[in-house]
Amino acid sequence: MAKARANNLKVITVDDRFIGADGNYMEEVPYIGMSAEKIGRQMGEALITEIKNRGWNQNDVGFMVTTFEELDTTRERTEGAIAQAIEMGFPESRIWKAPIQQRMEIPTALDAANTLLTRHPEVKLWIVGGPNDNSVLGAVRALEGRGFTHENAIAVGINGTDCIDELRKSSPTPFYGSILGLAGVEGYESSRMMYEWIKDGKEPPLDTRTVGRLITRENFITILKEEGMMD
Prior knowledge:
It contains 8 helices and 9 strands. By secondary structure, it is α/β, with parallel strands linked by helices.
């Protein structure tokens, strides 16, 4: 940034933020990226809305949240989902975390989910959320291993990229959908802000956050085509 300023260059960071010598985010550099909390809340809203659509009694449902709290972004996503679920009336006492060790991948998430399922054999209806698609898919595999299907389990991931093969399966699985990150929006908006900054001297906001779109088996092809992610 010192070099950019010395040469009168304008800088906007997209998706990842610059970190200064003090280890903190460089708040003075305009940034555009996904809102981890808002996307987490979208996931929570999708889960609770589907519960209500199915007419399930929330007091009979367990909410499994696969977590990786070592990273701020992933923690903000899952905490956002939990907060949204509670605000929509889901009982906090029936929300349980399944901490993932090391990496947010299917095998580690499967192990974390199995540990939680062993502790709660009484739960016959499950909803599942997590910080990314693979962390949720691991929980789905654990549920399937115990006889759960799309009829008694609902899972929603985040990113919308690692779940496409799951949504393409000929028969539905407990994986209901995912919150797709809108990279195209970030690209478009950052270009627009840069153009206006150069042409009109309009400085961009220091912090711009985007949200995602829910994709499911029914709409994922249409949405991916709209977002330029599928031919």
